[in-house]
Amino acid sequence: MPHTTNIRDFQSFRGSELVESYLLLIAIELALKDRGAKAADSHDVPDLLASLAQFSNIANSRRVSGELNSFIAQLRAALSTIWCTGPDSNPRRVPSKSYPYLRYCRHYSEWAGSHETKASDILSLNATCKSLRDFLRKNNKIIGVDL
User: Fold this and answer.
1) Is the CB of residue 132 less than 8 Å from the CB of residue 75?
2) What CA–CA distance (Å, rounded) separates 79 from 123?
3) What is each CA distance from 108 to 78, 85, 136, in whole angstroms?
4) What is the CA radius of gyration of the chain?
5) Is the pLDDT of residue 5 over 80?
6) Where are the alpha helices (DSSP H) in the chain?
7) How confident is the model at residue 124, as a pLDDT?
8) Coil, strand, or helix at residue 63?
9) CA neighbor of 125 nearest in space, from 9, 46, 47
10) Half-sphere exposure of 122 toward its Cβ, with a 13 Å CA cutoff?
């Protein structure tokens, strides 16, 4: 059963770039799982994207496959620039395999200069999430992900 309403609702928020990124990743994760994408860790969007290569229509399109690989690398890098507070209350980078850590982002100027996320890193993550969403929408007929 597809998560159509949830996917639509999680994309409709406008406000903080961090929250918008988080909600876009939720929508993308749900849409990828509806398509049949699989990952070892449940919130690993880059691995979910990589698992799409199993579908022949994607493997047969060099352009789409290449762009998909580029987005996987971009998303991993963008997530890992964000500082958060880990479960042990210590600062750590957001693991690329678990975007929900974004909820514990350590914003610049809130942590006395220690392990803080710059606004530019949040903007970069947001741009990556929006570009990924747009790519998946544009290539829906090849990829089969409904966003």
Assistant:
1) yes
2) 11
3) 16, 13, 31
4) 15
5) no
6) 4-11, 17-35, 45-51, 56-59, 62-80, 119-138, 140-143
7) 98
8) helix
9) 46
10) 20
4: pLDDT strictly greater than 80: no
**CA 34 – CA 40 distance, rounded (Å):** 16
- pLDDT value, residue 101: 95
Q: Kindly report whether the global pTM for this prediction surpasses the value 0.85.
A: yes
> CA-CA distances (angstroms) from residue 123 to 1, 4, 109, 117, 147?
33, 27, 16, 11, 21
3-state SS class at 106: coil
**Start-to-end Cα distance in the chain:** 15
Q: What is the tens place of the pLDDT at every residue in 78-111?
A: 999 999 999 999 999 999 999 999 999 998 888 8
The length of the chain is 147
Work out the pLDDT band at 15, boundaries 50, 70, 90: confident
